[in-house]
Structures are given as structure tokens and as C-alpha cells.
Amino acid sequence: MDPHSALPLLVPLPRPATGSATRVALGRHEVVLEAVRGGYALLWTDGKTARRHVLALPANGHLTVQLRAPRATVHVATRDVMVLLPGARCHGFVQVPLIPTIVWHDAAAVSHVVVELRPAELAAEWDEEHGHTLHCSSAWHTRFPLRADDPRVVVALHLRNCGRETLSPASLPITVSDDELLHKRGSIVVRPRRLWWNGRWQEVRATGRVLGVPA
Hints:
By secondary structure, the protein is mostly beta strands. It has no helices and 19 strands.
């Protein structure tokens, strides 16, 4: 793969012959499907940790590896301390991890999620107010970031403090959907987000519509 091209959002994972294996690499992530006695073994590594799954697959159908967006709001903590005075604006970029997902496509063209290989950097936590939440950290980039070896989506952010007090946010809530992922400048991106703070974060669309976002 061209080192300057974006990671593909979907890659076929061919079923191997008995006693052999197929491999798919997505940056530092690697998926290996082995045909073993009585079924298949799925091995996955992100370069730091590894997991193994045992699969039983029907006779007809095929597998793909897809990069999918987290299905819940991700609270992104910037590694630099941010300070926004009342009325101030700030523009930059953060990166949110994508989830390598193994998908089975059956003979009727129906898709089934087999396993989600959530990276360790995308941590799940329990919050008394919001229930299960997802968290990660990201550098705050003042320019479009260089292409990463990890599956990540680049999100352009426009922040505004509409409150009357100085704001130093612990995290920024970002929601991404699969259907808006696209390739640009050698990376995976989504449309820019405009987040306004007035006691809680609100996402403002280009139309002027304000959407509630968990603080």
C-alpha cells in the first residue's frame, strides 16, 4: 500500500484453505485468519496486544475487515491543557480511534458483525450520569496532522466559549458515524465540528441548528 494513502475502510478477508492462513494489515494492526481442524482461528494484534478468537463459519458467504466509527460519543482529552476565555474561539484537529471490525456477509447479502477489535487506547468507562462512555486522548493539532499508522479519523474542531467564565475542558465530546467517513489528504476524515460551550457542549451545524452533546 502507498505509504501516503489513507487506510482502506473495507478490506476482504478471504477464507483460507485447510492448513493455511490469510493476512490483512491495517497500519500497525494485523488480522490473521487460520483454517484449523474443526473451524477457524482469528488472530489480531495492534502491535502491543494480541487476541485470539475461534470462529465457526457457514459454508456460503465471505468475511471483510472494516474500519468503523465508535457507536457512542467519544470524550477526547487533549494532551495539552486548553484554556478558553469568555467569548474566545479556538480551531484545530484531534484524532479519534476507529474500530477494526470483522463482518460476515451471508449468501443473502446480509451483514453480521462477528467481532469488534476495539483498540486499547479507546477505553470504556461507566459514568453514573451517562452510563457506558468511551474515552481517548489526542494531541491538539494546529495543522492537519500527518497520516497515522493506527486506524484513526481526523476531526476538525471549531470551539467557542459562550459562557461568562474561563473554560479549561477536561474532554471534548465527539460523535462520528460510519456513513460520514471519507478519504482526504491521505487520511480518514469527517466533516468539521463546531462545539459551543454555555454550561454544556452544544454542536452547531452549518445551518445554525444546535444539537445537544453530552458534557
